Amino acid sequence: MSDVPAHGDPVSWLMIRPGWKVVTSDGAEIGRVEEIAGDDTEDVFDGLAVSSGVFGKPRYVLSAQVGEITEGVVHLTIAADEAGHLGEYLEPATSAEIEPDSKRGVGETVRSDVRRVESKVVAPIEKHEHSMNVWRRIALYLRSRS
């Protein structure tokens, strides 16, 4: 008998939280949710980052591979052998769009330019998807256990 809990009432993808168990269609627990990819303002669910441990690289589960979602457990529509071939979760590139404000004066323009330069130093914009570094994985793991 599997240690996966019996199915409860289905819940929306919006209810999924880091730390929830992820189980395959054949009942194998493959890890826990690290991150949820989607846009909750538009109700668009893209998928999940699932990790099997603190040092394991998260794997990406497409929303199409997610079946029933119950409180604390995400049930996949794929079997354990298929889950073993899931690709690595890549964090999305960050982006920002800065639009000029035509009503600013010279002083405001200078302050804006200084802020723009400071923002590039403090939080540079990444142009490509990238793997999670080990420190981010540790932080997500600890967050999901709290």
How would you summarize the topology of this molecule?
Blueprint: E1 21-23, E2 29-39, E3 44-51, E4 59-62, E5 66-70, E6 73-76, H1 80-83, E7 90-91, H2 106-122, E8 130-131, H3 134-145
Parallel strand pairs: 1-6
Antiparallel strand pairs: 1-2, 2-3, 3-4, 5-6, 7-8
Could you characterize the architecture of this molecule?
The chain is α+β, with helices and mostly antiparallel strands and 146 residues long. It folds into 2 domains: 13-92 and 129-145, SH3 type barrels (Roll), CATH 2.30.30; 100-127. The protein contains 3 helices and 8 strands; from the N terminus they run E-E-E-E-E-E-H-E-H-E-H. The chain has helices spanning 80-83, 106-122, 134-145, and strands at 21-23, 29-39, 44-51, 59-62, 66-70, 73-76, 90-91, 130-131. It has a 6-stranded mixed beta sheet with strand order 4-3-2-1-6-5, with helices on one face. The chain has a two-stranded antiparallel ribbon with strand order 7-8. Strand 3 and strand 4 (59-62) form a beta hairpin. The longest helix has 17 residues, at 106-122. The chain is globular, with a radius of gyration of 20 Å.
Strand content: 25-35%
Q: Roughly how many Å apart are the termini?
A: 28 Å
Uncertain spans, ≥5 residues at pLDDT below 50?
1-5, 117-123
The CATH architecture assignment of the largest domain turns out to be Roll
- CATH superfamily (homologous) name of the largest domain: PRC-barrel domain
Tell me the structural class: alpha+beta
CATH topology category name of the largest domain: SH3 type barrels
Q: From N to C, what is the helix and strand string?
A: EEEEEEHEHEH
Mean pLDDT metric: 77
| Total discrete domains | 2
Number of helices: 3
Fraction in helix: 10-25%
Rg, nearest Å: 20 Å
Number of strands: 8
Strands ordered across the widest β-sheet = 4-3-2-1-6-5
Name of the CATH first level of the largest domain = Mainly Beta
